[in-house]
Amino acid sequence: MTMDSHRDEPWRAWYGLARWKKARAAHLKAHPLCVKCEQQGITEIATLCDYRNPHRGDPALFWDPANYQGLCTTHHSATKQREEERGQVIGNQLSGRPRDPDHPWNITKADGVTRP
């Protein structure tokens, strides 16, 4: 579902509330760097307050500060959108392993060994 398909959703108005603006500003002040850039060893200022788990109109997720993450414009507008569409985390850790915890390389087998 694209951002345009959410245009008429009632929860879009929540972004205009003083409560959201205060929560967003507080999060970005406390967490000023883009979390996805940090995972790649890059230092970049977060300009947007995003959700670790998409809220999809659920007020509990929308207002939960533990669900917030700071992102730069690039990661919010490109990477995060692709991840939500695909249902998987894109990119690698600094070690080279995939960031997606469900990637086969990150799954521990019955014998307790993570492969490959």
Give a quick rundown of the structure.
The chain is mainly alpha-helical and 116 residues long. The chain has helices at residues 18-30, 35-39, 59-62, 73-86; strands at 48-51, 68-71. The chain has one domain (3-91).
Note down, in words, how this protein is organized:
With 116 residues, this protein is mainly alpha-helical. The chain has one domain (3-91). It is 31% helix and 7% strand. It is built from 4 helices and 2 strands, in the order H-H-E-H-E-H. The protein has helices spanning 18-30, 35-39, 59-62, 73-86; strands at residues 48-51, 68-71. Strands 1-2 form a two-stranded antiparallel sheet.
Average pLDDT, rounded to a whole number, is 82
Helix fraction?
A: 25-40%
Structure summary, number of beta strands: 2
- Stretches where pLDDT is under 50 for at least 5 consecutive residues are 1-5
**Alpha-beta classification:** mainly alpha
Biggest sheet: strands side by side, in what order?
A: 1-2
Question: Total helix count?
Answer: 4
The gross shape turns out to be: globular
Number of domains: 1
Biggest sheet statistics: 2 strands, antiparallel
